[in-house]
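Sanity check

After download, print the first record. It should look like this:
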Amino acid sequence: MPWVYLLRCRDGSLYTGAAMVLERRLGEHAAGRASRYTRARLPVTLAWSREVESWSAALREEARIKALRRAGKERLVAAAADA
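Expected C-alpha cells:
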C-alpha cells in the first residue's frame, strides 16, 4: 500500500511526498538521492505519514497537503504526535 508523508528538514521546513515503499523512500532521502529540495536540507526526519489505499489516492492526498499552508501541515504533525 502506498504512503503519503511529511519530512522535517534541517532548516525546519516540511517536505511532502508519496511513496510505494516508505522505508525505502526515507533511505533515499537520507542518502540525498530522492529530492533536490531535501538533499540541500539534510538531515531529514519523518514527521508524519499515512497509508492510503491506492497510488492515485496517494497522489491526490500529496497534492492536497502541498496546497496547505505551513500551519495546516503543522496541525497534521501535531495531531499524529497526540495520537
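If your output differs, re-run the checksum step. Summary of this record's structure: The chain has one domain: 3-82.
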